[in-house]
Amino acid sequence: MNSKDATPEIIYEGKYLRMVHRGNWEYVERTHAQGLAAIIVAVTPEDKVVFVEQLRVPLQAPTIEMPAGLVGDIDAGESIELSAIRELEEETGWTAAHAEVLMIGPTSSGMSNEKVAFVRATGLTKVGQGGGDGDENITVHEIPRPQAAAWLVRKMGEGYALDAKLWAGLWMIEHELDGTPRG
């Protein structure tokens, strides 16, 4: 029998995730927040890329990431764009006049049904300190765009776990999705 046609069996269900067995596959499903996360590609008016640093419990390591968050975790009807602006402000203290969804795709298609939306935030204005909500301890880094890749490589050498999607985000700062240079 094809795994696609097999009846799913829920192995475990928690508050936010469930583990499913279907045919030869075991995978995780998000049970809230539309199963979608937004990664915010943001560059300040001073041409600095906005990154966040935080301890990620599953890795037991500090990570460097672009600001990100779940879509609809606060308001189920919230759009991707509004979720991205809200998360950007909560995590970094920057708000955006405009947010544009660049693309949506799976985060780990062999392990989870979660998808990620890359969102370009523009018209940034500093409105607060950032740092995340009460459950987060986020450090904000603003790195000059021309030095961002080298800074990330240094952080990796210092033992930080780097989200591989960072490199896609950096590419999206410089290019349109069709590969043409921006600006």
TrEMBL record:
**InterPro entries, per this entry?**
NUDIX_hydrolase-like_dom_sf, NUDIX_hydrolase_dom
Q: Which domain of life is it from?
A: Bacteria
Q: What is the lineage of its organism?
A: Bacteria, Pseudomonadati, Pseudomonadota, Gammaproteobacteria, Lysobacterales
Protein name stated in the entry: NUDIX hydrolase
Entry annotated with the keyword Transport? no
The protein's GO terms of the molecular function aspect are: hydrolase activity
Q: What are the Nudix hydrolase domain coordinates in residue numbering? A: 33-166
Q: Which Gene3D superfamilies match?
A: Nucleoside Triphosphate Pyrophosphohydrolase
Q: Which UniProt keywords apply?
A: Hydrolase
Which GO biological process entries does UniProt record here? nucleoside phosphate metabolic process; ribose phosphate metabolic process
